[in-house]
Amino acid sequence: MEKQIKLFLEFLENDKKLSNNTLQSYRRDIVQFQEYLDNERILYTKLGVQEIKDYIEYLKKIGKKTSTISRNLASIRSFYQYQLRVKKVKKDPTDGMQSPKIEKKVPSILSSAEVELLLEQPKDVDLKGIRDKAMLEFAYATGMRVTEIISLNIDDVNFEDSYVSCSNGVKKRNIPLGTISIKALEEYVNTARPVMIKKEDEKALFVNVNGKRLTRQGFWKIIKYYKEQAHITKDITPHVLRHSFATHLLQNGADLKSIQMMLGHSDISSTQVYMQFQDDSLKNIYHKAHPRA
């Protein structure tokens, strides 16, 4: 099975062009499944629906969340679809199995006033402050995922036309940048970044104090620091800024399809979760104006 896992992951990387984070997620799920099968002395080519059900019960027993179990089942299903394709198995044991229902969590968002308070915290009086201001303005202006932001290269930003090109695997999208974000980004790129980088050929847009590409952990720490400086009690993560970006766009009249494109959602149902934050004033306008409201 180890050889087949290796070939499956190579297929996902080379043919499906999945990101490294997604590949690692598949790897963890399938390797955990393999370990379970080895302990139970079950051949991966011989198991059926009941064995998959038993595995799901095992995951529940060891305290895995419903979302984790659902993702595990999706990974196993993909693995067996590949095995069918290369004719290593005759049937997919997950065929017809329903994923556990996941309750959609209400996204945590900041009010416009809280966003303003957070973005006011970095003071552009030193290199780090200039970078942090640019980075927080950029995160809220684009709604990009933290992995996407730290993966950006300086050439991905078009300062002349005020947009950033974000590539996630095989998909690419252009996201507009507002005047405040562009101004903060230009100051960082022109004054702070040239001093912070150690090598002239460094491509990363956002770098740490060592002049290397900023990490996820580094990004999270920066946001946590300024949240505390702002005395905001809500838990703030890069994803909260993403949720706030989408919600504030919707509340100010942007259409769902445009928000879906900017967020990079493949399915609009993922974007529709923000409808619950729709401003009550819009509902009032509808009820007053629509002839059949």
Quick structural overview:
With 293 residues, the protein is mainly alpha-helical. The chain has helices at 2-14, 20-40, 49-61, 66-85, 112-119, 127-142, 146-151, 179-196, 216-229, 238-251, 256-263, 268-271, 280-289, and strands at 157-158, 163-168, 171-176.
Could you walk me through the main structural features you see in this protein, from its secondary elements to its overall organization?
- This protein is mainly alpha-helical.
- The chain has two domains: 2-85, Tyrosine recombinase, N-terminal domain (DNA polymerase, domain 1); 112-280, Intergrase catalytic core (hpI Integrase, Chain A, Orthogonal Bundle).
- It has helices spanning 2-14, 20-40, 49-61, 66-85, 112-119, 127-142, 146-151, 179-196, 216-229, 238-251, 256-263, 268-271, 280-289; strands spanning 157-158, 163-168, 171-176.
- Strands 1-2-3 form a three-stranded antiparallel sheet, with no helix packed on it.
- β1 (157-158) and β2 form a beta hairpin.
- α6 (127-142) runs antiparallel to α8 (179-196) and α6 crosses α10.
- The relative contact order is 0.09.
- The mean pLDDT is 86.
List the defining traits of the structure above.
single chain; 293 residues; mainly alpha; DNA polymerase, domain 1; hpI Integrase, Chain A; three-stranded antiparallel beta sheet
